[in-house]
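Justification of computing resources. Each target in the renewal requires a structure prediction run like the one illustrated here; the chain below, 430 residues long, is used simply to show the kind of job we budget for.
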Amino acid sequence: MPTATLAIEAEDFLAKALLWADSFETACLLHSNEFGDPYANIQSLLAVGVHREIVADGDNTFEKIEAFKTKHPQEWMLGFFGYDLKNEIEDLHTALPDELEFPDAYFFVPEIVFRFQHGKVTIDTLEAVNAQDIYDRICSTSLLFDSTNLAKPFRKRMSKEAYMQSFQQLKQHIQRGDIYEVNLCQEFYQENCAIHPPSIYWELNTVSPTPFSTFFKFREHYILSASPERFIAKRGTTLLSQPIKGTAKRGNTENEDQEIIQRLKSDPKEIAENVMIVDLVRNDLTRSAKAGSVAAERQPQVHTFRQVHQLISTITCEIDPNVTDLEAIKRIFPAGSMTGAPKLRAMQLCERYEKSKRGVYAGAVGYFAPDGAFDFNVVIRTLLYNSRKQYLSFHTGGAITIDAEAEKEYSECLLKANAILMALHTQLED
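Resulting structure tokens:
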């Protein structure tokens, strides 16, 4: 793969590169916003064009992606796993409405890869393309983002009354001992909605910069994500997961912010949520780990983002050398922070009480690198768009435990919607 490293001299080069990339049928930007992450492998990565690709067909998806990956061992590979791959892993079924029509998974080997680090961009190309020509072409791209003001508010797939009913029914399952935590999610959507996805993504990233920000275009499908959560990554022989459980709003002043952080760190309900999910993730990772190597080494810590404070834990293990990357991902999929525990029963109940298919939401987007590393986020705080149908959607969710209160959990769902609504200059319907 021919490589050239150039100093970034053009102002707003990344923004221009995004606009240029949108002219391709497939493109993916993974953008860390330079968060101080001790496990960070890249600052920003932009992959453009398709050399090879694989689209899930509903049968043995992880195994087929494994075979695809084996054919391209020294190349970048980017893509997404949809939440409903759970139906292949467990005896589960999904009959909920799906207006977005994403495939359950998609991966591609790109023609061109841009790696951004420390004021320089490295351009890798599969073909004999002059990197300087690509760079100059991007620099000459007009920096024109559209300001999107949606005339209509987002509609609710689940009314507040329906949410409260589902909440109470799930609380009864907890009281009966069927589960001890579950993540109830709801969809907000717009129909006949024409947007310019790169502009929306750029505004969302401005309003809510996060370490796992993503712009992903796959033909008419778009993922515009401000995710703060890492699902699973591999560094060398180490696997790690960083589930989020525990959310609080930002304060209006620094003193108020500190008071909120202290309350979050000591809130028994929030800590209990986090501990339950840490136990679940530790159990999931054990299935791919060398014996005795699973450790919750940093739990839980408050991480502060533009819109919210979050409680985040870090669980690591040494991967069993007999376990492949795709096997390791399959054994922990989907993210426990988006299901509940016990995991299978929680997923069954989510299917019963939610009103729409999650699809890519609560799944994962990320990369496999030529050096053997990989990194995937959890698809939350994310707009999903089908440009052909002009259907725009996002979900929010929150954990229900024995101590959860319906009004507080509903308010947390709305809090998590704030950045998206701000980026689109709109609101939710009453």
